[in-house]
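PROTEIN DESIGN WORKSHEET
SECTION A - STRUCTURE
LENGTH: 137
TOKENS:
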């Protein structure tokens, strides 16, 4: 990932963090709107899930220059997702929902360059998670 993209990711995530858990809440609303069948994977109280989403995204963004720092976390997350019933096709829906949520939260700060950076990051996350399910640890 290029330094300019890393800077865009860090700046944009810092901006949405200023709004508290709003991005996490909006992300799950968008996800369930995009694919209502995914709602069954979660309990009725999403506050814990929102916090986990926020914490994981913050950890990843903080470690963008050191993928080795978050690769084990993504592998473990992929294993948990399998146990929860998440399918590989669900990753596309999650990515689309994440990008829509970021676009809504960032508004005029959501530039083509920022979108490209987030798209690339999500592709890296997805590739790492799905590859960890295919190959031995």
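SECTION B - SEQUENCE
RESIDUE ASSIGNMENT:
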């Amino acid at each position: 990932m290029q330094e300019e993209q890393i800077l865009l990711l860090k700046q944009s995530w810092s901006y949405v963090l200023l709004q508290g858990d709003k991005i996490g809440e909006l992300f799950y609303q968008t996800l369930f709107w995009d694919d209502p069948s995914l709602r069954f994977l979660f309990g009725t109280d999403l506050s814990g899930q929102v916090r986990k989403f926020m914490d994981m995204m913050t950890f990843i963004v903080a470690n963008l220059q050191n993928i080795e720092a978050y690769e084990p976390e993504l592998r473990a997350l992929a294993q948990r997702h399998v146990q929860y019933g998440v399918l590989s096709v669900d990753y596309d829906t999650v990515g689309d929902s994440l990008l829509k949520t970021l676009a809504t939260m960032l508004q005029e700060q959501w530039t083509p360059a920022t979108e490209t950076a987030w798209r690339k990051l999500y592709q890296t996350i997805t590739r790492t998670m799905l590859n960890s399910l295919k190959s031995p640890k």
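SECTION C - NOTES
The domain at 3-134 is CATH 1.10.490.10 (Globin-like).
The chain has a mean pLDDT of 89.
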